[in-house]
Amino acid sequence: xxESTTEGERxxxxxxxxxxxxxxxxxxxxxxxATRSGGTIKRVDIDMGRVAQLDTFGAWLxxxxxxxxxxxxxxxxxxxxxxxFRPLMDEVHGVKPEQAPPPRRSxxxxxxxxxxxxxxxxxxxxxxxxxxxxxxxxxxxxVVTHPRRFRFTSMVHQLDNVGWRAVPIILLITFLIGAIxxxxxxxxxxxxxxxxxxxxxxxxxxxxxxxxLIVAIMVAGRSGSAYTAELGAMKMREEVDxxxxxxxxxxxxxxxxxxxxxxxxxxxxxxLGSMAALYGGGLVCWLYGGISxxxxxxxxxxxxxxxxxxxxxxxxxxMAMVIGVVACVEGMAVKGSSESLGLQTxxxxxEAIFLVIVxxxxxxxxxASIGM
Amino acid sequence: xxxxxxSRDVVIEVRDVVVGFGDHIVLDHVDLDVYRGEVxxxxxxxxxxxxxxxxxxIGLLPKRDGTIKVFGVDMAAATDAxxxxxxxxxxVLFQQGALFSSxxxxxxxxxxxxxxxxxxxxxLDELAIAKLEMVGLDASVLEKxxxxxxxxxxxRVALARALALDPEIVFLDEPTSGLDPIGAGxxxxxxxxxxxxxxxxxxxxxxxLDSLHTVCDxxxxxxxxKVIAAGTMDTMLASTHPWLRAYFHGKxxxxxxxxxxxx
Lengths: 372, 263
Description:
Chain A is α/β, with parallel strands linked by helices.
């Protein structure tokens, strides 16, 4: 497609065929070879007479050819170019040479910088969490003093989504978890003849910790992610901005009903989940451990008190609040791109689960110190 | 570049096309020819189905009846390979740009080229800059993400991406909507220039009367599910069809303005 002949200080190049996108790969190689031809060349003549087709790709490669010879100080002339191709060549000729790309730093510096950026991001997310928590509490107080401003319909709708529709899956999973704990307990306790204490273990574990924790983790994955995605999509399409310009407070209209719905829904789900787990545990004790339901119930009455139940239930609304606030912070942090929506949704679930576990640890210390 | 008069080479041939959603028939036996090297302005009322026809031609919507031939290939009967070969020869500018939001401008421009042709990164980078300069931008936007671009810049980058593979046909869906009159005028000039330099065939869905006056060689009008007229601006202005009179002689049209001034 490009033939070259050297006559002393004069290089003759002759192009032929179709200088189009499909041939750009071969053409680039030939152009680069021609450019590198050594010797003392003062003059370059490029004959384009036999080039039948030319598109932007071909035109750019011809431009690259003439530019590189011009840079070497050679007089360059292009002849025989069809009149049809003129405007395209003129267009390409106007393209400014590429600016030098920004200097790449070493990967070590990049790595250290990334650590710093991440630490700063953690600080930033703590700050925005506290900001949102404050804003939600202020909105809550405002709504308490002016109850009419509360979006009751919206809250009921959210409660339907996060509470009612979550019941089957929550019941199934907590039932299975209760059954597994009981089976493991019986299997190991039997070795030293302490089968009956399985009831104590299942009762205390489920009511104090597992019930609320499993429900919180499920809700973070199921509803927290949905909140982030909904709010993020609204943010992307400027719906949140639209609300604001109409004089509505997005916190009051969008976020408060969602968080209140979670704070009502999660305790109910925790209660239902704990009961399902106890039921699963009792069933396994009966079928696998030979502990009849009567014995299971009377043993359970001795093992647990109302306090055990309260400890689990008190935690539920706080965990709901954390999940809701994290989901809303991340949703509002979504920027224009669809990738950002995905990132924030992931962050929302991961952060919510992490914080729920941290909160659970803090409650454990708190209840231990007040003797509950 | 094909001559406008004399023997005309049909690149898009739409015959008897019916498209509907449920009970609602949007396009009712539509016929349309697009000739090589022309700029066809496609107009019609809002909701008349202009974008529907464009999306049907490029294969995004199914048709109930009729045939669509692009470069003489019947798109419904074509094999996957044939269809892909045709798709490689057209570029589409969507109304909102449809730039990939997770890729930078550079990656957006290089994406189609990278998929179809195995070129060196060096050449890809040079081509990205060349395409950007052709649409009136420069290398400074290369590393930006679509969310960081203004409306006009988004349109230009999207046009550059539509032109990435040097297509023979470009479909433009309301290219000047959302641009200020100066920006819209610049965009019209840009389309005209690119059409001349690259020998493009342009299928432009538009509402912009100025675009129709300045860049379009021919205008096709869609109303009541049919193409009711196709021809030059003069034909449109001379027509007595009530909808055409309302559209081209309305208060916002040039003809309407001139008439108003005379009175």
